Amino acid sequence: VMLHAAEKMNRSALELGRVSIAAVMRTSFTRPSYYDQLTKTFRLFVRRQSCSRPDRHAAYYNYVAGECVKQGDTKRAAELADAIQHNEDILFGKAAFQSLLHLYASHNKPDDMLRIKQIMLDKGQLLDNSTYSSLASGLATAGRVEDAIKQLREARAQNIDLQARLFIPVIEKLVQLGCVEQGYDLWREMVEGHNLWPTDVGLAAILRALSNTESEDWVYSIYQGLRDAHRGVKTATKEAISYWFENQSSEWKVTMTSINGQGYCCACGHKLETVELAPERKALLIKKITELLSGFETAEHVTDTERTARDEVREAQRKAVTQRIKEVDAEIARLEGDRAHLLFGQHHKDLLEDRRLQLNMLHSNMPLTLHGLYERSGLQPPLLKEVKHFKQWVARTGPYDVVVDGLNVASFNSRGKPDVLKVESVVRYFLDRGKRVLLISRKHIYDNKRYRPILKKLTDETDKCHAYYTANRRVDDWFFLYATVCGDMNIDLVTNDLMRDLRQLFHGKVFQDFLKWQQGHQLKLLRFENHRHPVFQPPCVYDTVVQGTDSCWHFPLAATSKWLCAHRMNSPTDKLQ
Question: Per-residue confidence at 477, pLDDT binned at 50, 70, 90?
């Protein structure tokens, strides 16, 4: 409506006023087609002489600073900085200061950047993560590494939420200047001290800088970090890894490859690690799941005072993390709708990816307990008596080869209406292959008069199929897990549920073990042929993480089935089957 008024009304700018002009600016950035209209609106606003001193408005100077960045006009930016410094009446927003910092950083002017910082302090502006990131990046690029490190220390002293993009330019420059040990110490401070991991572009920059140094241990620790995080390699990192191996010696050969059904690399013939857990790792995973299940019992035997104190601490932690999640969510929404990437390019994209990584980290660090995990979903964890009854029932009727998530299978491509015939098809698929099947579903499915005869027929025809029905508002994931524990984690689970809620209760190596178990034992439905015959995605026989030996390295590529293979030529490897 305001944009329409700006075009049609004779006194549009006067009618819009100061606040409306800023609103028009924000609206214009959310849609590319409005960006040109923004420029016209400001020109109209400035031309209206009857408007009192348009050159004092923050929106006007934000626009001027943006034009300086867009045109690369450092002379005009210097005049603007002089005007801001010597005129207290000028309203200059943080966005305009940020624009000038980006401009001076791109033109390698560190002294001007420090001057802008001082002006911001004099004007009472609060320096945030974005400001210190621009300062550290610009100073490091200009070779002023000590000043860049000073900005990092200053940001940490002010308890500013540090991000990886503050460290990466400084580390990269230290390596380029030959200060590898100092760069490695700063890397460890970032990764281990602050639990930060760089973006794809930032990691690629570090690897390229390390290509001309003898820092194999550092590079291999980066590869280990990718492995521990179960990260797929993106484009920029893939190219940097190839560049690093090719710069080491002529012995290494880097190729794109794929892995065959038996887990062998089609390029070098090396066999990848199996997805099956080692006995000691499997025992630790079973122990962790058993401890979580025993939490139902301990939760019912705490006193009211202990429960109140525990809940108060948990609620305070949850509120603090939730508030930070809301702030990061709002910043991501602003960045996604912002048109600043037209001016700042790759830096804006790195900032957006950095915020998304931070949001994932906050979600993973949300204080969670067994009974507080499902508060938002409205579901409830099973009661102690239900867990005990299920344990006794499984001990009496088991063991099983396959566990079927009845509700998930019935809801597969059903548009909200469960189809029990799909459950019947899946169960019969495994019964025909001589498997013992445990069907776990909800009571409301069995209580339906149309579904009950079908489900009852499955269990009455053979003793190889049993069904267990949980309460309607209960979380059934725990029943699946306990059934697999009873089978020594060798049971296949049929469900398309990724069990993200349960994953949040596993940490470190146990989390990686749980993901490996899912890869090797979770069968996902792809489709039904002729509406009757289920087709599953076969479980993976090899682990899809970064893997390396002295003779070869394999990197899974993100969002694809391709791999990057780096292997020493003429080295002994497993024969391709």
Answer: confident
